[in-house]
């Protein structure tokens, strides 16, 4: 086993009401190190009793504490302090994240700076927030009274976990909500860093709370808790459906960021080398454990054979190795359960399509969750490896002839998160982008994104879009206040002599 980074405690406890706690039941679970699958930390295994306490602390802070009542500028000042604290631990976080999740160290670097940027961004937005007012001269003025929604339940996945958590924590806290975070059970270790960060930044007790544990126990209890007004969930489609159903009984406000099976469409007039570089990175970065991975590559038949050959040649040269080695490009998958899932899809793929390269464990890495970069070609649209999210270093390449066929193939899946279009024809780029059923499309590029833009999927990739002011809207109530400026025209029920014109049901707009 690689050397454990400094600062990882032997045991991880829940944190709520400003204090650390063991599970009420005393339960713990093991966290595994992905290059050996040996346990190296135990984390408190929360269930309903722990969620009840954490939500109670968050509700108390929301109902009675200063956080929701602070001026936006005051909250923003603390968010900036959180950002500074996060940025300070950039190297420590990279080491922890890489060790805990198997992310190659080179790709783990910079995660803290990105997370810090999320806090600075939402701090700026909340200060600049403007709400609308609508005036009907002489009659009525209406304005929007923005209020934080309440206790926010935040449920996050294990891929780039710290960054994912920051994407929810920052807008929730900026909006004035108090939060209960339930991080993924495979990767609780970096989440534990938030406790010190929040304390050092001066976040009042009860505003930030965290409960570790499994989805079926801790996650489920958070979704079903009547005092958790909203749930912001990122994870798989299957779990998303369960969360959706379970949220119904309490009319939860829900944001669901789910999986993807995103197409990259490469036309024969594209910049071949740039498309090649980008689709290799799009599939194999972050170990392929990336929600926006371009895991289906659709290539125009005129360049198909050349592309498949060039893609496979490069994929074979990708360096698979330990997460801590700076030359590693693909490291160990997060957990043996996930390794089993990915390798079982590779076996399915061998029955369904042409295996071009990869297809199993690299021979020089006999232990740990290592998978070769795996390329399947000639993948039919009804193949499971074309339809289902694998979430590992596995790609399906499929040829097409016409623009219409490319669009049809791109849309022929349950998901609709991201898409990538490669062509030098400007009109075609825009037309194809517009015809693809996905929340986000990148033209001749990948995954670089302005935080102000909408982020989210359509179809099975999720409900609701976050990003920019959309995130603040999700964590807020926009209450409409109507004030009469002139005489109140009330239909005088029980009095005599009112006309049809006095019915007062609505009225003209300004
Ligand atoms: P998952 O659905 O298994 O788990 C996600 C979280 O939900 C975990 O914290 C888990 O404990 C919790 N959970 C599980 N069952 C639950 C239940 N019944 N009630 C409440 N919570 C429950 O997903 P994962 O394997 O951790 O993450 C990978 C998935 O996340 C992939 O599908 C990936 O595409 C998706 N993802 C999406 C985005 C996005 O922005 N759209 C970003 C990252 C990851």
From TrEMBL:
Answer whether the UniProt record assigns the keyword Chaperone to this protein. no
Q: Write the record's keywords in alphabetical order, separated by commas.
A: NAD, Oxidoreductase
Positions of the Aldehyde dehydrogenase domain: 27-480
Active-site residues are: 257
Q: Does the keyword Lipoprotein apply?
A: no
| Top-level taxonomic group | Bacteria
Question: A single Pfam family, by name?
Answer: Aldedh
What family is this protein classified in? Answer: Belongs to the aldehyde dehydrogenase family.
Quote the protein name from its UniProt record: Aldehyde dehydrogenase
Q: What is the lineage of its organism?
A: Bacteria, Bacillati, Actinomycetota, Actinomycetes, Actinomycetales
